[in-house]
């Protein structure tokens, strides 16, 4: 008895060149890790396929041919395999995911939470609120819970919380005051520990276990590199149908400024590549200032607090009625650490001290480098006036006309977007982190220090243009959510009628011989998936070793959560959740 399809005789067999070309094509992710350029592989694949192409063009119908050599090769492989009756059921490392039969569920996992006013605490909170406005999905925001000793180190004004419920109420009240509507999403907590040296929160234990399997449908990992550096647990792409990473931070830029920074940056670059490949289906980079990771594309998926747009509209109305809205000059606002643009600012002012004579800049910020920054400015006798940090929405800042931001370490500066939303001029560096803002007429970029002086003088001598309705919309969270839905392919995933299909990577093609639609990934094993699974397994093995974790900078004892975490979050004691004989 033959199991081949009736169309098998109509499909030309594969030759060695096609098989070798397919192997090379599927091995591109491995070559990326080895530093071999993708262009070289693509040219070799095209060369191997060119000899066969003439023959296929004459023997196959035009509907099967494709201008893209890679797609044509995939379809050839799938067509031949389908003609033999072969059906590929899954990857070497992959597991079958839970079937999601009811309303789709989105879990947003981030690395910080309010009241820490950092981008990875604020922006995921807004994303959850606006994604939850749709009736297509339910949303859960998953944030780190810190024990009280760590809360005292991280949260401003010695603010602490006795329970997750207390912190959740604070977060909701803060958010709803700004968005102006009742939010409809859940907030869950996972154990985290604060690392003083890196000023960041490291997950303790397997973060994925805090999302129930029945809700493990779509995951959005805010800072996927950070979340997975020491992740020792379930692979995200095994547990979830679709995993999207959002890159917030230019880690390599910060690391290069440290002692032995070049060496550290080399290793971190490759670790970031590994975790991006192994744990995500799609990655969105907020700007070109981030590391070019596998499976990534550039798209600004952040908006601004609606309050800033309201301030901009009020100021525009005042100016239209003839009132003087901008009574102050220029200012800079940001956490006072050297890496946040303070080094560049002082260098610019020191170099052009005479050109900027009489021009005073007010600076608002707190941070661990406050004393050094202010001492350097006083030593050079610069016209910089330092003030304590405050919320950018504070009424005292509305009267400034010009926001100056010389930082080149940011990925996408939230304060720059907020200043533009309020109708101010922004003077910033000609840098990939500012590409999104270039289309706004009030954004004045500079390439040299001489350009900086010219841009500052230009901004001080004329008035900014009012934002158009289209420009205000582009800065809003409504527009940011729309961009996110489109570029993360979440709109396609949510509209999928088949809830038990793998939303991440399957693609359908039309078979020119039979007229049937074929799923390429279901017909042919994907070497890329095997490589990704192997990387994930190797990462799992290494992060299971406490010695390896400590040697690479992990916080001691973060492989599993602590006893205090289990008490605060009402979890099983760590010795029960992770017995000594378990791995």
Automatic annotation (TrEMBL):
Compartments where found: Plastid, Chloroplast outer membrane
Glycosyl transferase family domain location: 328-434
Enzyme class: transferase
Pfam families: Glycos_transf_1
Catalysed transformations (reactions): a 1,2-diacyl-3-O-(beta-D-galactosyl)-sn-glycerol + UDP-alpha-D-galactose = a 1,2-diacyl-3-O-[alpha-D-galactosyl-(1->6)-beta-D-galactosyl]-sn-glycerol + UDP + H(+)
UniProt biased composition (Low complexity): 495-507
A GO molecular-function descriptor: digalactosyldiacylglycerol synthase activity
Region of interest (Disordered), residue spans: 495-524
Keyword annotations from UniProtKB, A to Z: Chloroplast, Glycosyltransferase, Membrane, Plastid, Plastid outer membrane, Transferase, Transit peptide
Enzyme Commission no: 2.4.1.241
Any one GO CC term of the record: chloroplast outer membrane
Family: Belongs to the glycosyltransferase group 1 family. Glycosyltransferase 4 subfamily.
Protein name (record): Digalactosyldiacylglycerol synthase 1, chloroplastic
Naturally occurring in which organism (per UniProt): Urochloa decumbens
